[in-house]
Specification:
Blueprint: H1 3-15, H2 24-31, H3 42-52, H4 71-74, H5 78-86, E1 90-95, E2 98-103, E3 112-115, E4 124-137, E5 147-149, E6 168-169, E7 174-186, H6 192-203
Length: 206
C-alpha cells in the first residue's frame, strides 16, 4: 500500500469541508464572489491574499533552523524533488472581467480559474463547467482509482464521499484530458495536499 494511502483516513476527517456540500450559488456568497462571470476584482483579491497568505504548501519535512546548512542536501531528497514537481507555477484566472495568467501563489478563495490538459491543479476547487471529458490524475493521493473523471454538478449540492465527488479537484493533481472552469475553495496549507504534508511532517524527521 502506498504511503499516501495510509494517511487518507485521518486527513479526510480533518479536511472534509462544508464548501463541497452546498450549492454553487450559496458557495459564491460565502466566498465573496458576486459575479462568477467577471471573477473577483483586484482589490478584493489583494485583501484576501493579505488575510489568508500565499497559496503555498509547506514542504513535507521537518528541518530545524539550526540545520539550514543542510539545505542543499535536503533539496536532493526524493520527497522534496517530488514536492517541487507538484508545485503549480502559474494559473489562468478571471479577474476584473479579464482572463489573465498569475503566479499560482497569488490565488485566493473565490478566484475563478481555468484548467487545461497537462496543467497542475493550482488550488482545491469545485468545477463549474467542463468540456472534452475532463480527467484528473490523483495518483499521489490515491493508489486505488487514481484517475478521476470530473464534471460539474450544476447548482446541486454534493452527496458523494469526499474522494469521489466529481466536481472536486485537489491542488497538485494533474489534468490529463479536458478543460474546466472552477472556483477556488481552499488554498495553501488548508488544501488537501497541505493537510497531507502536515501529517508527513508530524511523522518524520527529514
Amino acid at each position: 500500500m502506498a504511503e499516501s494511502s495510509l494517511l487518507i483516513d485521518p486527513i479526510s476527517k480533518e479536511y472534509d469541508l462544508r464548501e463541497r456540500l452546498i450549492d454553487l450559488d450559496t458557495l459564491y456568497g460565502i466566498l465573496g464572489l458576486s459575479n462568477p462571470e467577471a471573477g473577483l476584482d483586484s482589490k478584493t483579491a489583494l485583501m484576501k491574499l493579505q488575510r489568508d497568505g500565499l497559496n503555498k504548501v509547506t514542504p513535507p519535512i521537518n528541518l530545524p533552523s539550526w540545520m539550514c546548512c543542510l539545505l542543499p542536501c535536503v533539496k536532493s531528497l526524493p520527497k522534496i524533488q517530488l514536492y517541487n514537481r507538484m508545485c503549480p507555477e502559474t494559473a489562468r484566472v478571471m479577474r476584473d472581467g479579464r482572463m489573465m495568467v498569475v503566479d499560482a501563489a497569488d490565488l485566493v478563495v473565490g478566484d475563478i480559474i481555468f484548467l487545461k490538459p497537462d496543467s497542475i491543479v493550482p488550488a482545491d476547487c469545485r468545477i463549474i463547467e467542463c468540456k472534452d471529458h475532463l480527467q484528473v490524475d490523483r495518483s499521489y493521493f490515491f493508489s486505488e482509482n487514481p484517475v478521476m473523471e470530473c464534471y460539474s454538478l450544476g447548482s446541486s449540492s454534493a452527496s458523494n464521499h469526499l474522494f469521489y465527488q466529481p466536481d472536486l479537484c485537489f491542488m497538485a493533481s494533474r489534468v490529463i484530458t479536458g478543460e474546466a472552469k472552477a472556483v477556488v475553495i481552499r488554498t495553501g496549507d488548508k488544501t488537501f495536499w497541505g493537510y497531507m504534508c502536515l501529517y508527513k511532517r508530524r511523522d518524520s524527521f527529514l
